[in-house]
Amino acid sequence: MKFWRKVFAIVRKDIVSEFRSRELMIAVLVFALLSVLIFNFAFDTSGGEAVKAAPGIIWVTFAFAGTLGLNRAFITERESGCMEALLMSPIDRESIFVGKAAGSLIFMLPVEILVLFAIQVLFNVPAITWQIILVTLLTTIGFTAVGTLFAAMAVNTRARELVLPILFLPVISPLIIAAVKATGLALTGGSWGDMLQWLEIIIGFDVVFITASYLVFDFVVEE
Amino acid sequence: MSSLAYLGIAFAIVWVVLFGYIWILNSRQMRTERELKRLLEEKKK
Amino acid sequence: MRKRFLIIVGAALVIAALLLTFLVAPPIEGQGASYRIFYFHVPIAWVAFFAFLMTFIWSITYLVKRNMKWDFYASASAEIGLVFTTLILITGSIWAKSAWGTWWTWDLRLTTSLVLWLIYLAYFLLRGYVSDEERRARFGAVVGIIGFIDVPVVALAISLVPTTHPPPLIFEGGLTDWREIITLVVGITAFTVLYFVLLGQRVALKYTEDVIKKLKAE
Q1: Can you tell me the ipTM of this complex?
Q2: Structural domain boundaries in chain B
Q3: A174 vs C150: CB contact, 8 Å cut-off?
Q4: A148-185 pLDDT, tens per residue?
Q5: For chain B, which end, N or C, has fewer CB atoms within 10 Å of the first or last residue's CB respectively?
Q6: Do C129 and A157 touch (CB under 8 A)?
Q7: DSSP code per residue over A43-93
Q8: Sign of the CA dihedral A46, A50, A52, A57?
């Protein structure tokens, strides 16, 4: 019970400070929408073609916007000197990890929903469905878990914005593959049964990597 | 390009890369050992 | 003494493997001479995987024991693994070109190797950007662990993607001819010995460089 209270405290701190400076959330959202726009020029999205291009567009956008959003979880800590204070407090490292990851998740989901709305409106594809929302939620969970672990490392390097995507996009490639395939099936009216194998991969990935990241996070932030 | 040619190229690349790597390691080792010797001499003075 | 022995054994095995690959292994119907790339593509892939397995194990060892020696071994193994993964991509690509006329195919082996290559490239990139030696070892260990766990997941995900391209199924039926088997086994053994020779060299270099660094610090 104490664990969740600590996690909640960290999440609340993040959200409160994020809410006050809404700039970053808006910046990420604008970036995501712009990327959808650019993809519209890059691909033939007229009529039936849109359905083929949409899953890729959606997930590339999420991957890059998400990477931007992940950086924010630790940059503010480092710059304001908050990390040291956080580490010196009696809160254990595992709670910090879960808190940070949850914060990034809560940050990302609204952005993703809005992007899905935009895709539905602009490309006339059924993007807002329970199937796609579930895929997005499950994928983003794994994404933020691994991303938080790697962001904690990237923030300590000399070229942090560069290092994070290079480091963690290959690692989450199975997530993206599965998400794109599942989204594609959902957009073309596939049933839950069709999507099952991809959902299994996403969930399997989440379980394995949340556990691994949770266990290993301590080693990343020890100072 | 004949099948044999492809085989030959693949083969050549593998050995060039492997021997290249060994050669690089070796020359770095020799250079480093020379440097070490030099530093040890200096320390004696 | 032992090092010399290992090198000689390795060289002998390599020569044996070459002879077997070109002279003994039987030709296959419908495939030109280039199918023999298989006989070094597979051992190379095995070594790359083995190298990363060792990096994984030594990474964990480092995090537990905190002796720099384990980081030397882990990063040396990763470096060798990266070199060998590069070779997988190159030989696989040449084989693909010769078998199907394209330099690249998104089949399971090549795509997984590409992702593996990127993960370990990132391993070195990350280490390159970290100035503190202890932190570099620690971060490297984390990536070494997470990256290795990722490999089967990547392979699984890619294997489920329906491709229009049939992978080279020639050997899926299993190797039946004893000549094929022995060529492969000798090849794998030869490259494994090669791995250990390279590992020894690379780690020795790390130690020497470390001594110099410590001397200079005085």
Answers
A1: 0.88
A2: 1-45
A3: yes
A4: 999 988 887 777 778 889 998 999 999 999 999 999 99
A5: C
A6: yes
A7: S--STTHHHHHHHHHHHHHHHHHHHHHHHHHHHHHHHHTHHHHHHHSS--H
A8: positive
